[in-house]
Amino acid sequence: MAEHALSAVPMHSRWNAALPPRLTIDSGDVVHFECQDASGAEVHRGMTAEEFQRIDCGLIHALTGPATWEAAS
């Protein structure tokens, strides 16, 4: 059993089967995923309403990965 870490960078914001796995693990491995907030780190404390209206909606729904696993043989 191995332990892995997967950073939030690079992130993407759409489920897409064409994205190659960033990590391949074996059954039983432990993975620590670093995740962005749902805004892709664009929303922050103290943000004004005007700043909020200018966020890039293409970054909303930030995802980390993808990851896949190897089936035990």
Question: Which features does this protein show?
Answer:
73 residues; mainly beta; two-stranded parallel ribbon; 7% helix; elongated
Report what the structure shows:
By secondary structure, the protein is mainly beta. It has one helix spanning 49-53; strands at 3-6, 23-26, 30-33, 67-70. Strands 1-3 form a two-stranded parallel sheet. The protein has a two-stranded parallel sheet with strand order 2-4. It starts with a strand and ends with a strand. The mean pLDDT is 87. It has one domain (3-70). The protein has one helix and four strands; from the N terminus they run βββαβ.
Write a brief caption for the model.
The chain is mainly beta and 73 residues long. Helices cover 7% and strands 22% of the residues. The chain has one helix and four strands.
